Amino acid sequence: MMDSHYIQVLPFLFRGLGWTLLITFSGLAVGFWLGAAAGLARVSPPGVLRGAAAVYVEVIRGTPILAQILFVYYGLSDLLGINMPNWLAAILAIAINAGAYIAEIVRGAVQSIDPGQREAGRSLGLSARQTMRHVIWPQALRRMIPPLGNQFIISLKDTSLFSVIAVGEIIYHTRQYYSNTFAPFEALTMACVFYLMITIPSSLYLRRVEQRMEGK
Amino acid sequence: MIRTWQLTKAFGEHTVLRDINLEIRQGEVLCVIGPSGSGKSTLLRCLNGLESATTGEVELDGERLDTHAPGINAMRAKLGMVFQHFNLFPHLTVLQNLTLAPRQVLGLDEATADQRAYKLLEKVGLLDKAHARPENLSGGQKQRVAIARALAMEPEAMLFDEPTSALDPELVGEVLAVMEDLGREGMTMVVVTHEMGFARRVGTRVLFMDQGRILEEGTPEQLFDDPRHPRTQAFLGQIL
């Protein structure tokens, strides 16, 4: 039993899990601010910022993430004449990709707040910025939680693509394992189990959060 | 103190206010009545710049209201507004609803803002609800909080946009009572309302609007007992 491939692949998977989580969390941490900025720009009065945000969102949503990863790692390195570490390219790629989808989440949440809230804030003498910060944003943030959780699951799965730039995440180590042992079925099964161990509890938790919000 | 000059407001092709010339003096309780869609609410929203005039001007204390100028926030702070649907901030407690703008706009410290808020909650009879959430209040209580929230900015005048139209009939009285007290204390008020009893009792002047125009104005006695314009007569005949 102990010499089964299902067991022997585990140390490899754990090594990969660390990178998968690190890239997901740091990428989303940066991506959230990027998305918040782009999302707020999209609900601001027409201007350069709003236009730039719209282009950003459309370009990212309209191109495959694999192309974006290769673009950041090889394209940007080439353009800037630097040798970007692959883990940094991975974090950047997740941030840029998730940022565009988060921008849409932010825009949707902000626009879903009753216009009467803005009017009440402005009628009290709050500036547009103060109204956003103290009235609209706290309410919108609550509505963003379920779709942000969903984006977390999507981005987590997207990290598997970083094996193409040799980032040592779960799939990278899985491939390493089966190219030496010729046991792809066992290795990939266990790799999927690892993803599910994170994604299933996450979506169950999200559903509970959503139910609690609807119950209110 | 508030003056409009040839104020016109159009949404696209649709003109909702036509050539409104109005002067509201200190201490007046001006009640605006008229059928739905007559432009009453739009007029009120133009007075504090929630809508910008298409042509013409609105003046507050002799200063022209420009919704795009940086001074607009300070001017809005001089006018309290109460909405039909309350528009309380649901993520804040009642107390926080009252202290947000005084702290952010007037720069009051927490203790001073809280003290002011408690005083106002006592005035509207809701001191015990200071730490409640808006969702746990009745409609009448919500509207009284909304009035207190506007008063917390110590405005020079209060604008009321159909403040009792969204309330259950038995809750209308408690809100009107608070407004009546305010009027008696000398607060300058502009009240868009369907409550003719209130307009007659508390109003110092009543204005009848239809299709974006002021058709008739006068004291409550003049307007309710002896309306001149046939449209006013028809409107009053239908609702009284």
Task: Characterise this structure.
The complex is a heterodimer of chains A (216) and B (240). With 216 residues, chain A is an all-alpha fold. Chain A has one domain (4-213): MetI-like fold, CATH 1.10.3720.10. Chain A is built from 9 helices and no strands. Chain A has helices at residues 5-8, 10-42, 48-61, 65-80, 86-112, 115-123, 128-158, 170-181, 184-215. Chain A starts with a helix and ends with a helix. Chain B is an alpha/beta fold and 240 residues long. In chain B, helix 6 links the parallel strand 7 (157-161) and strand 8 (188-192). In chain B, helix 3 (94-104) packs parallel to helix 5 and helix 5 (139-151) runs parallel beside helix 6. The longest helix of chain B is centred in the last third of the chain and has 16 residues, at 169-184. The radius of gyration of chain B is 18 Å and the shape is globular. Classes of the chains: A mainly alpha (216), B alpha/beta (240). The interface between A and B is medium-sized, with 19 and 24 residues.
Task: Considering the chains and any ligands shown, give keywords for the structure.
heterodimer; A: 216 residues; mainly alpha; MetI-like fold; flat; B: 240 residues; alpha/beta; six-stranded mixed beta sheet; four-stranded antiparallel beta sheet; 9 helices
